[in-house]
């Protein structure tokens, strides 16, 4: 009887133990079924060309405010706003009687000193010839004539220099164009006193060169290193819907602007037909390419969280977070900089929920 109870007890314990094991196996099977294998992607190395669309502005190739160099009254204006002018063309004539008087005085002084210089020169030459005969001219007389000749020569050349300088000032009364262009501003009228704070230092004219323009584009820091000699760009203008213009990079600022953190690029535009105007805003598409190959990952692989920006790398079938800095985006890929190598496996869809060391099943 006792043996019967013992056997029954063993049978009951075995039954419940088997039931418990079956439940654990079933639970594990359900868990595995609920946790599908994680899709992986591969880090790529590439040097793709890409485009970036940015705002731009057309500026004159040359632009200058024209000021008078001397003080005087506006005697005559020969151009007005909108006038096309050639280099050296007379724009305005100033009048300053005192400058004319000074020039006349300097010219008169030069004439008189020149006559004295000629007389002393001829006297010295005559004495020099006569001195060749023994006893004809005393040595002291010859030396005195030579000293007079040198003094008159210095006086003449000095007065001539002063007259030339005065003549240059006289020429400053003529205001001429420094280059070909169009007068975009006229700020004075005839009879106005200008120069040396006359009209509060206001310029007479503003002159711009419109036959050639500069297209200015600020390239963001992320794309700046891809800007190179020969970079091409296309641009459109609101004034010419459906029309596309082309340009080639001419120069760049060489340093990032400290305020905007961008690199200023300049594209020279031929505008001989005057189709374009400075001041117009443009929509510019710049064709760029990285100077060397960089690493790329799917956009979905990059996790941007409060903890930082990272991708999840498959390292020996375990999750490892790799901090990265992101660059430009091209289609479904994004440029990444970090402790990665081409061919590294990373999660196709990164997630904060996947912790460091989590086992990764491949699919």
TrEMBL record:
InterPro entries to which the protein is assigned, alphabetical: Beta-barrel_RND_2, MdtA-like_BSH, RND_pump_MFP, YknX-like_C
Domain CusB-like beta-barrel: start-end pairs: 217-287
GO cellular component: efflux pump complex
Domain Multidrug resistance protein MdtA-like barrel-sandwich hybrid positions: 63-196
Signal peptide: none
An example molecular function term from Gene Ontology annotations: efflux transmembrane transporter activity
Highest taxon in the source lineage: Bacteria
Residues covered by the YknX-like C-terminal permuted SH3-like domain: 298-360
Assigned protein family: Belongs to the membrane fusion protein (MFP) (TC 8.A.1) family.
Name of protein: RND family efflux transporter, MFP subunit
Source organism of this protein record: Hydrobacter penzbergensis
